[in-house]
Design a protein that fits this description.
This protein has 92 residues and is mainly β. Helix content is 7%, strand content 54%. The strands form two sheets. It has a four-stranded antiparallel beta sheet, with no helix packed on it. Strands 2-1-7 form a three-stranded antiparallel beta sheet, with no helix packed on it. It binds zinc ion. Zinc ion is lined by residues 25, 27-28, 30, 61, 63, 65, 67.
Length: 92
């Protein structure tokens, strides 16, 4: 009986594939760490038979500034960063 073997064998962890970045708030200068899950946070788009992935995020600092920092990333089909854009702050 393989009951114990089954009980204690750990299921494989899904591989994390995160893209992390840092931005600085334009208003208060706070540095905010952002993260994009390259599996779940991307939406695919097609341009001339080529596949691209886009991700948009809105970040807000933890201080009482309430400035919204909007970032947008463009990745190639193999998840290489091609382009990035930011409003309300800057990449650092
Ligand atoms: Zn701020």
């Amino acid at each position: 009986m393989n009951f114990f073997k089954k009980l204690f064998s750990s299921s494989p962890q899904p591989q994390r594939n995160d893209f992390t970045f840092k931005v600085k708030c334009k208003r208060c200068g706070e540095e905010i760490q952002g993260r994009i899950d390259l599996v779940n946070d991307l939406s695919a788009e097609y341009e001339d038979d080529n596949e691209f992935y886009y991700s948009r995020k809105v970040l807000m600092g933890e201080k009482r500034c309430f400035q919204r920092i909007e970032v947008q990333f463009k990745f190639s089909a193999n998840k290489t960063l091609l382009d990035k854009d930011i409003f309300g702050g800057e990449f650092i």
